[in-house]
Amino acid sequence: MRYQITGKQIDIGEALQTHVRTELGEAVAKYAERPTNATVVFSKSASEFACEVIVHLSTGLTAQATGKAHEIYAAFDASCEKMEKQLRRYKRRLKDHHKERAQPVELFGGSSYILASETEAGESEPDSLQPIIVAEMEAQIPSLSVGEAVMQMELAGAPVLVFRNEAKSGLNVVYRRDDGNIGWIDP
């Protein structure tokens, strides 16, 4: 597994990098058969350290966990525990579904746009009804089953996931509802 360990405006020592490689490697090896790479980012705000861990699996799924603590090692340990818990649940769901994906998840290209949320200061109405595009990016749309899409959304900690339904070859959306349940839009 490839590791990318960085710090946002803080220096990451060799001892911490070694600790991350061994602990994260052990946690991921228990539950994931073929992880491809891991990104670990440390940051500090006031007196608290934050650690964000992202692990990409060979199946195309991504697991993400964050942890915060007053010490940098404790922040990593908290995020590593969350990662281990997510991967344990992921593996249990795979066993429950009795389905093994023989091929990696197929990804399709798409465009992602960020639109301006407010009009300029002092202007009561916009000149046109066309929204102002602030940024344009490429996005990857995975081809998944509905169950895998829900699993991917939960592993990533995202509120919504757009995916291509393997069964119907159409675009679908799964999202977390206000009542805690999962919603599925199948146009």
From TrEMBL:
Gene3D superfamilies hit by this protein: Ribosome hibernation promotion factor-like (3.30.160.100), Sigma 54 modulation/S30EA ribosomal protein, C-terminal domain (3.30.505.50)
Name the UniProt record assigns to this protein: Ribosome hibernation promoting factor
Organism of derivation: Roseovarius nanhaiticus
NCBIfam families, A to Z: yfiA
Single Gene Ontology MF annotation: ribosomal small subunit binding
Coiled-coil ranges per UniProt: 73-100
GO cellular-component term (any): cytosolic small ribosomal subunit
Record keywords, A-Z: Coiled coil, Cytoplasm, Ribonucleoprotein, Ribosomal protein, Translation regulation
Cellular location(s): Cytoplasm
Family: Belongs to the HPF/YfiA ribosome-associated protein family. Long HPF subfamily.
Gene of this entry: hpf
Quaternary structure, from the entry: Associates exclusively with 100S ribosomes, which are dimers of 70S ribosomes. Interacts with 100S ribosomes.
